[in-house]
Write a structure and sequence with these properties.
The structure is a homodimer of 317-residue chains. Chain A has 317 residues and is α/β, with parallel strands linked by helices. Chain A contains twelve helices and twelve strands.
């Protein structure tokens, strides 16, 4: 369990084979983009590698895996990408919990769990780290790899909008565009395409909007009934969490999603000095400074008052 | 009326003084960012220069002019930025119509009207051209100029999302971030801040949504009554035009805004091979391939059926 340089990790990967690459639960564009980019790079080195998607590879992410044949082999090397702690392994924890060889991550709150760990919290997306890792592996980045890396960049930054973006993020994106990555199409799919169900559920959640603490905290929620009525699928629910913080003057935006009976998944988004991860840590969650998540059990009212209480504490800090 | 190189324009500007810089009517982030960036640069050369805002400098754009003192002088040089034709001068046409010395623009459909004209239609934003012009003027880009240039980049690209973005756009943005431009704050103000009135009018326009031609064309509209009811101001109306095209499967998105009695301003957004500017040219408007605008007089139903007819023609082409 020691921290390593990216170069040490590259040298290690050059000397190993038969790897599986794990993504975090509720996989997003950055963990998936990291995994498929690295998998493609290792295959270009003649190695066997496959991605283990921690959940479902939803339709809009299918292109990450395009033209990749299935590879069946007994794994020798386990790689974790964009995973801050073993709890984020979810259902994969049982099989892989103590067996991770290499972890490449960008979460400041990373709790090392692998034999070798590289964390660069300045990277807006973990695919920034993967971009440099692939360069150290000596693999030429092709269009398919570029698409995977770009996917992480744009999805973890709200399309280069959030405060985590650095000039490095922009220059990597520029390189990927020169290689021919399909940035415009990826952006359209990720940010500019809404199903009718999505539009309906947006309208429905706006009806639940409440404002607190002099309009500095905004809360919206979804229910399973709402999802059923609007026909919204998981992919329609992505990004709803950005809505409450968008309201003028709001510094903490909270989204409460009913995921099961008396079980709620909560997303917190903050601006300025307010720390989303701190708020979520109260309930065993975590995340980044400006975006965090946690789960709370109880009724909707209970979940809402608990998270509101924690948010108000952060507001007054 | 001839086309010039950017270098010729830089040399001309070095040898002139007392300039006014004109923006296009309904001024947006790109024309304003172009004007204030160039004005600041000319002042750094010791010249007198002022921006003539073609309309109102709304609250969210105030920072473009921060720390700039008023300069009163008789103008000798007239510069137009991000203006494709004299009709876009609007109310400024009467005074400046035949007097424009220099035009720097990025519209492919530019109809030259100035003594010297530089058009680079590959630039996603006109501030890309201004960035290179300022370099040719030998002026060091400071934070304030960087903020102005960045504003054009992000507003004309939907925050680096649209298909007009090039690797050049990204690298210029990276340079501006290294200079210290306040990109995260600008993005938040431009893209992540909605007034409560905005949220209300979004809900209201979604109620007007209609789909046509096998769900390939979507239309929304606003009325003056809607604006009054929701308390929406002009700034709340910006970006509504992006909504209809976002719906899955829609390739032409149309937004009809009632601007006066029997007078409608229409925005068209397209994807793939469909040309928004072509659709709008039917009604004396224009724009880019993926985004165009025009005005139609008549009742709402008449305006809607006219623009729909033109859109259907483009769809079948």
């Amino acid at each position: 369990m020691k921290m390593n340089s990216l170069n040490e990790i590259a040298q290690y990967l050059k000397n190993t084979d038969n790897s599986v690459i794990l993504t975090h639960r509720y996989p997003d564009g950055d963990t998936l983009g990291s995994a498929f980019a690295l998998c493609r790079a290792l295959r270009k080195l003649g190695k066997k590698s496959r991605v283990i998607v921690n959940g479902v590879l939803t339709g809009k992410f299918q292109y990450l895996a395009k033209n990749m044949d299935e590879q069946n082999f007994e794994y020798e090397t386990v790689i974790a990408v964009d995973i801050a702690s073993t709890s984020q392994l979810g259902e994969l924890e049982e099989e892989f919990g103590g067996k991770v060889d290499v972890s490449v991550d960008h979460h400041g709150m990373n709790m090392p769990f692998a034999k070798m760990t590289y964390v660069n919290a300045k990277a807006a997306a973990n695919t920034e780290n993967i971009y440099y890792l692939i360069k150290l592996l000596g693999v030429e980045i092709d269009r398919d790899i570029a698409d995977c890396i770009y996917t992480g960049l744009c999805t973890d930054t709200g399309c280069f909008k959030f405060s985590n973006v650095t000039s490095d993020t922009m220059r990597i994106a520029a390189d990927l565009m020169d290689i021919g990555c399909d940035s415009a199409l990826i952006n359209r799919v990720m940010f500019d395409t809404k199903s009718l169900s999505r539009i309906k559920i947006e309208r429905a959640v706006l009806e639940t909007l409440t404002l607190h603490c002099d309009n500095k905290i905004a809360v919206i929620n979804t229910t399973m009934a709402m999802e059923k009525e609007t026909g919204a699928e998981d992919s329609d629910m992505d990004g709803l969490a950005a809505i409450p913080r968008q309201i003028e003057g709001v510094v903490i935006g909270i989204t409460i999603k009913e995921k099961g009976e008396n079980h709620f998944r909560i997303s917190v988004r903050t601006v300025d000095d307010y720390d989303a991860a701190e708020i979520c840590k109260n309930f065993g969650g975590g995340g980044h400074h400006a975006a965090g998540g946690c789960s709370i059990d109880g009724t909707l009212d209970e979940a809402k008052s608990k998270i509101l209480e924690a948010a108000e504490r952060e507001l007054r800090k």
